[in-house]
Amino acid sequence: MALGSKVVGIGTGIVARKVSDKALTAAWRKTKNSEPPADPAAPGTPWADALSWAAASGVAMAVARLLATRGTATAKMKVTGQAPEGLEGPGGRRKTA
User: Fold this and answer.
1) pLDDT by 10s per residue, the chain, length 97
2) Torsional class of 81: left (φ above 0), alpha (ψ -120 to 50), beta (otherwise)
3) CA 3, CA 9: separation in Å to the nearest integer?
4) Which residues contact 40 (CB under 8 A, 6 or more apart)?
5) In the chain, count of helices (H) and strands (E)?
């Protein structure tokens, strides 16, 4: 993988992470009317809040990663006409055993 692709991938990942964290925090504040747990693993954090935050964070990070990866792949395909290493081109399907 070329250095430029790595740099772009890291940059988009960082931006996607920050955006998803802000969106998740805003959604938590709006739905729970409280601040999200600062440390879900802390003994003082109620289990319901810790588990809710962990699940929501996991989904948000997975979606952010997907958006960053697909966005980067789409941009590379538009610029170079080739899919990044390890990714299929448009319409790629998962291989089944």
Assistant:
1) 567 767 877 888 888 888 988 999 999 999 999 999 999 999 999 999 999 999 999 999 898 888 888 888 888 888 888 777 777 655 656 666 5
2) left
3) 10
4) 49, 50, 51, 53, 54
5) 2, 0
Rounded-to-integer distance, Cα 92 and Cα 88, Å: 5
φ, ψ for residue 58 (rounded to 5)?
-60, -45
Continuous segment of H or E residues that includes residue 62: helix 47-80
Write the CB contacts of 76 (distance below 8 Å, at least 6 apart in sequence): 5, 8, 82, 83, 84
Q: Which two tokens stand for residue 66?
A: 């997907």
Residue whose tokens read 């430029």: 4
Q: Take residue 30 and report the two structure tokens written for it.
A: 């709006």
* List of residues 6+ apart from 92 with CB closer than 8 A: 83
